[in-house]
User: Fold Acetylglutamate kinase from Candidatus Limivivens intestinipullorum.
Amino acid sequence: MENMENWLQKANVLNEALPYIQRFHGKTIVVKYGGSAMVDHELKKNVIRDVALLKLVGFRPVIVHGGGKEITRWVNKAGLETQFVNGLRVTDKATMEVAEMVLNKVNKGLVSMMEKVGVKAVGVSGKDGSILRVRKKLAGGKDIGFVGEVTEVNTGLLTTLMDNDFVPVICPIGSDSEYHSFNINADDAACAIATAMGAAKLAFLTDIEGVYRDPLDKTSLISELTVPEAEALLESGNVGGGMLPKIRNCVDAIKAGVSRVHILDGRIAHCLLLEFFTNKGVGTAIIGDEEERYYENCQ
Assistant:
């Protein structure tokens, strides 16, 4: 009897996922992969398996990954000094060379993991096919070196890969009009790519549970926010630190046409599946003002 209850529970989970699979079948989703989920091997395997499952049930996933912790480790190994201005890494020529090397190494590692679970993947830099064109980004008016701000996204190569059944895995390196390499904040790159591709979903894997009405009250996690509600939260002064630019990125992406943006705790095993395929979800979804309330309409 106990085994039968377990089987029925599994069947209910699959049944609960059905309307979400139907709704987003054939739709592009962008996953910004970063935080602890990139460092812990078991979490990394879970994320890759989640993306593989999303692909195999008909979603069109794109992965955009960071690698800040690995870059810092290799910069230190090379005897270079690590400096940040307003949260952005100062990237001189030597640091840029290390960053590009490390990001490409991370990129190919993720591709290998995807291939191991039976999904075809191709790792690309934002320089390939001029996917990400940039201009120099300043931090509070200060020149911080080879740090780029995305000015244009060329989706042709990505669309070709996806149409031929590949999952693109993108590292956030772009080039300017003179074809110099620039490091790009992975959140910014993911937002730009999701916007250009008209993604139905953009998911940020982070090291926090989601967005709170009160950061000091862990029971105040918000499951869904409309853009006006998110903007009001930003103005309230209750949002700070790294969450501030992340929510602003989310709002900008929604205004530019992305249907839903999810902020998820990548430390939770299978957080992507829990957020995308269950009525409750595990993080915070930010939606356009005209969008249907996710959890009210998928009961």
The chain has a mean pLDDT of 87. The longest helix spans residues 93-116.
